[in-house]
Amino acid sequence: MKALKQLFGGLIALTLFTATAVSAQNSKFEAGNHYIVISEQSTNKAELREYFSYYCPACRAYEPYLNEFEKVLPKGVKLEKTHVDFMQQTTAEVQFMLSKALIIAEKTAVAKKFSPAIFNYLQTDRATINSEEDIRNIYVLSGGDGAKFDKGMKNFSIISEAKRNKQTQDKLSTARQLTSVPTMVVNGKYLINAKALDEKNFFTDYTALVAHLFTL
User: Where is each DSBA-like thioredoxin domain found (predicted)?
Assistant: First the structure.
């Protein structure tokens, strides 16, 4: 958590992905130390993916900063989010429902309100999600159309996307590469090992590392 606070403590002075910063930092980043190569192939489109859970306090702490981080990503790079299902606070079934609901919220432009509402419901109100109806209610209160939610939860493409995300999650977990959240992966190929970064310059090093990985 100390490193997390340092990561975002300098957000106001954000100057991501400048050529000067990248060239100054690239030489210090090593595969197997600062990042782990988890795939031989990169994703078809450049992306920065966060593996997270609505049940994770550290993931909630990331949220406001990721919103700012997304604004300054290189052109053409998209921030993607995958909700994991291995947290102990509830069943894998409920967590998979949340995975599908997040995809629906993203496709219907409700995610920016839906995600904070879910975090608040679970972590501030300490309420419990037991059913799809519970999630639907939060989606509607976030400005979403209940009919679109109902349709989306049964939609083949949304279910398929959620299953693909789970398959990738399971593969990384089995390989002991995804062991906690939040975890960030660049282009489906490079998993960031935040613990290896310099705590004194954590924010600078982190952003420079992400920029470096997009050049590989």
Answer: 48-198
Find all residues with CB under 8 Å of 27, minimum gap 6, and list them.
none
For the domain made up of 2-213, give the CATH fold: Glutaredoxin (3.40.30)
pLDDT digits (tens, 9 = 90+) for 160-207: 999 999 999 999 999 999 999 999 999 999 999 988 988 888 777 878
Of the candidates 41, 15, 28, 72, the residue with the CA atom closest to the CA atom of residue 168: 41
Burial 84-96 (b: 16+ CB within 10 A, else e): bbbbeebeeebbb
Under the phi-then-psi rule, with left for phi > 0, alpha for psi from -120 to 50, and beta for the rest, what region is 193?
beta
Residues 96, 82: Cα–Cα separation, whole Å: 11
Residue with tokens 């000067």: 20
For the chain, the structural domain boundaries read 2-213
pLDDT in tens, 5-42: 555 555 434 444 444 455 555 568 999 999 999 999 99
Alpha helices in the chain (DSSP H): 2-9, 19-25, 57-71, 92-107, 111-119, 132-141, 146-154, 156-174, 202-213
